[in-house]
Amino acid sequence: MWLHRDHLARGGQVCPQCGYHYRLSAGERVTQLVDRDSFVERERDLTTTDPLEFVDRMPYPTRVARAQRATGLTEAAVVGTATIGGRPVVLAVLDFAFLGGSMGSVVGEKVARAADLARDRGVPLITVASSGGARMQEAILSLLQMAKTAEAVTVLKQAGVPFVSVLADPVYGGVAASFAALGDVVIAETGTRAGFAGPQVIEQTIRQTLPPRFQTAEFLHRHGHIDLVVDRARLPGLLAELTAYFAAARQGRLDRLDAAVSAVVSPDLAPALEVGTARYPALDVDPGAELDAWEAVRLARHPERPTATTYLGLVFTSFVELHGDRSTEDDQAIVGGLAMLDESPVVVVAHAKGADTAENVRRNFGMPHPSGYAKARRLFRLAERFGVPVVTLVDTPGAYPGIRAEETNQSGAIAETIALSATLRVPVVCVVTGEGGSGGALALATADRLLMQENAVFSVISPEGCGTILFGDAGRAPDAARALRPRAVDLYRMGLVDEIVDEPADGAHTDPTKAAGAIANALRIHLAELAALDPDDLVGRRHHRIRGYGALLEPSASAVDGGRDD
Fold first, then answer.
1. What is the pLDDT of residues 273-332, one digit of tens each?
2. What CA–CA distance (Å, rounded) separates 391 from 275?
3. Which one of 2.40.30.60, 3.90.226.10, 1.10.3720.10, 3.40.140.10 gives the CATH number of domain 5-250?
4. pTM, to two decimals
5. N or C: which end of the chain has fewer CB within 10 A?
């Protein structure tokens, strides 16, 4: 089939029949991504030398000169400043047509300087990599550009400046194993192939046939290496959404929640909203009318109860899901990403059950593997780097207790997640929306504020497990539930829950929109309070909160000294 060149150009060099993404030049890529006439190129005059006097089939300077004539570029990287959606960014784009987009001294220096510029200006760095890897004609000097670029983007990230890495077919070798892999958000364009070693090298080395779709964008996504795979047409809009989020984070828009709070907090309640303190007003509930504990458990497990994905679409005004632990897989029992609550940016991390059997199987019934908790920790660290709050939604029977989970250290994964959330220097607000099962739930529930929906439950073990161990009969689960006191009202009376979030009369599943509205209002209130605290005060208060958990009797002074009167 033949395609007219103009027709292909109008479609962004994407085949309208098969969806194949043809390569773009650096200039075409810049035009596609940034606001019209906003790009200002920098570092164009940096030029390549011939440090090794390298000659293969032709001298290295001859190769460079030919590439310059063919592409109109001085080198394989084009860097500069621009705006996306009216917001400033620094952009670095590699052009595969220039010596395979290979990274020599000039490309490495341009990328590093782009990172420096983004850091100095406090604006996001966006790179688009399309490269065969290191430039062999510069040998070890080319290899060392991996260290240069990795260090530059790490310093950028340590300064709290966002970095988005876009992979465009292909990305291999030294580029794949340096700056391109280090983005806060890593996006692969549809059809991209990426990896450290190329497939031919791998097959020659291991003497094995590689599996289908190996090293494709979809392969990388499935194994948790990248966040998103997007079609070319969607990429500009996604980058605009991300830059809007980053701009909101930079401007500290959390203080705008104060205005939202005044709209949802009644005047008689407002004086009670003392910054950084929990409130436990008396419950206006007749104990005789309270839902039985076992019935509360059953309602928390109701198959139609709203899941995390439902609430992500109803509570937040926008949400960009990020995927994977950057190591082994994308555990779909944990869902998380960058969200906006009204005009304020947050990072959301949630246990995710399914709305039907097929989705429950895919999400492992909301029971995470260690890779799911690794994903959560990655998102926690993003929130801290961007200076935005964390919101967690808890709904899980518990962490997955399988063989692979134990082989990959489920206990350590939970412990590390709890430890990290306990020390984050940004606000953390948790909402238990369904089941809060044991340590697997606590990993996302170690927070400055713990909220529970009215019919949620939270306990050290399931009633069935408790019935088996302590009552000798799993059928005694209802009795175990009453003994465990897992209801929101029970935990509230113990001073462990800061607020019970109202649900529709017969449960959240009867009106998810109303239930989500109540969660959103509660989040506005608590995030507005916590926003007033500086990080040291925030962490200090969280420390005292956590140290206060438990029930114990301190010995009297006379008991300690043996009861002596002297």
1. 333 344 555 565 555 568 888 999 999 999 999 999 999 999 999 999 999 999 889 999
2. 18
3. 3.90.226.10
4. 0.85
5. C
